[in-house]
């Protein structure tokens, strides 16, 4: 007598169910991990720009002639965000706006001369559970 080889239909369905459950958990977690990695560009650039603006203020006693800032926004070496700055002479606000084409659309981070950090999320970022916060830079779905 020969033994039959192969898998039964039930065994195959159990494996497919396990793969489906694992992918339902793993794929969203991986996407959040990738997004968090892209957000670090905004944090590092804004922190550096704030420091450079304070150094500029120490040398010039203002942050630049309004509406332009004394330290220009970076345009090279940045891919996930677009940086802009507005100066009032005695104050400034640097803004990092996410680029939708790379998956950071809907994220807007700001910092001003007082060191106040804020996050505004909209669109797909907000609908995917990323919160806004007027007192910090949101680094994960859990908040600051």
Walkthrough of the structure:
The protein has one domain. A hairpin with a 4-residue loop joins strand 1 (81-87) and strand 2 (92-98). It is built from 2 helices and 4 strands. It is rod-shaped. It has helices at residues 9-60, 123-127; strands at residues 81-87, 92-98, 107-112, 117-121. With 144 residues, the chain is α+β, with helices and mostly antiparallel strands. The longest helix has 52 residues, at 9-60.
How big is the Rg?
Answer: 23 Å
Unreliable segments of 5+ consecutive residues: none
Quickly count the helices. Answer: 2
Strand content: 15-25%
Report the strand count: 4
Query: How helical, in percent, are the residues?
Result: 25-40%
Q: Please list the strands of the largest sheet in the order they lie side by side.
A: 1-2-3-4
What integer is the average pLDDT? 94
What structural class do you assign from the helix and strand content? alpha+beta
Largest sheet: 4 strands, antiparallel
Order of helices and strands: HEEEEH
